[in-house]
Amino acid sequence: MDFSYPPEVEQFRKELRAWLAANLTDEVVAAGRRRGRDPATFETLRGWDAALADAGWGAVSWPQEYGGRGATVLEQLAYAEETIHARAPVPLNVIGMNNIAPAIMQFGTDSQKRELLPRMVRADDIWCQGMSEPEAGSDLASLRTRAVLDGDEYVVNGQKIWTSLGHRADWCQLYVRTDLGAPKHKGISCLIVDMALAGIEARPLVTLNGDADFAEVFFNDVRVPADALLGPLNGGWNVATTTLSHERAGAARLYAQLEVQLQDLVTDLTDCEVDGRPVLEDSAMLRRLGEVAVRIKYLEVLCQRSISATLHGGDALGSASLAKSVWAEAGQELAALAFDVLGSNRRWSDRRLTSRSLTIAGGTTQINKSVTATRVLGLPRQ
């Protein structure tokens, strides 16, 4: 692995670090920890996203014609490390910017690119992704939400679930079935849907920690203009699985996030005692902290292998899938350790609850292990 940073990347890092030091406030950091639990917090985060975008730091991986910097892989790596260690919030439109925007760049019309992308990066519009359904979660090809062409409109009926920010979204990248007679992978289309259209109902879903970051969304005879199609008719599977990604160094977020969380935990444990003895002098606690630290370092190596493969034309998918599984398990272990000692602490009790989703979100552990088996170990699919 070659991770020597050339002078231009270090200059990029220096400029970013200076901008963050001048603009990232304690209020914004605190809002990032709370995310969108109340309207005021949500608007603080929206304002931060706009400030990033206006300064040219909102989507560094995007091509310059769409408001980005066309950052190299190593510049993206530096960006991830600096923003995470500065504790800058992730964008409100993180799914939109990482997943939806690349699809619009590749498949969208000139009008869609021009009108939608600048507002997305500033969080002027909030986006959601309509994929999962009650009977089609990881198996996207089994989706049942239908869109039937009627004149110059599609009439959409169906339901989506676990839709991030679905109840706050202005736009949805919606996957629908448009050909019932085609093989299930080939009868899917993608629509860009205005969430203000009549017939759409979004109901917030409250999770274990009391947050409402997800929603179930119902479509009842929703009439969507035919020109809202993203990509070719019945070509939605290609839109969903496109390998185009402008966040190629996104793996850096996995280990950097856990490094920051471990630092926070050690800080919170500094003044903590059990039975009148400092926790950080307890051999069992030190062993558990050490085990987590080693797993995070192992995760860093895995992520760097994935990034190195990207740099040198190798297969990054296998190591990235393995890294995601290790990240999820290490994150759950860290949260469990913190909760065992600091259970009454709101931050760590919340993290303990939300950590249960880590082995599901972004690809289940089972799916990622299957990818690792076939792409890394060379095992047969059957």
Automatic annotation (TrEMBL):
Pfam families (UniProt xref): Acyl-CoA_dh_1 (PF00441), Acyl-CoA_dh_M (PF02770), Acyl-CoA_dh_N (PF02771)
Molecular functions per Gene Ontology: acyl-CoA dehydrogenase activity; flavin adenine dinucleotide binding
Domain of life: Bacteria
Acyl-CoA dehydrogenase/oxidase C-terminal domain ranges (all copies): 234-376
Keywords attached to this entry: FAD, Flavoprotein, Oxidoreductase
Any GO CC annotation of this UniProt entry: plasma membrane
Annotated ranges, domain Acyl-CoA oxidase/dehydrogenase middle: 128-222
Domain Acyl-CoA dehydrogenase/oxidase N-terminal: 7-122
Stretches assigned to coiled coil: none
Cofactor: FAD
Family indicated by similarity: Belongs to the acyl-CoA dehydrogenase family.
PANTHER family given in the database record: ACYL-COA DEHYDROGENASE, ACYL-COA DEHYDROGENASE FADE29
Protein name per Swiss-Prot or TrEMBL: Alkylation response protein AidB-like acyl-CoA dehydrogenase
Organism: Mycolicibacterium moriokaense
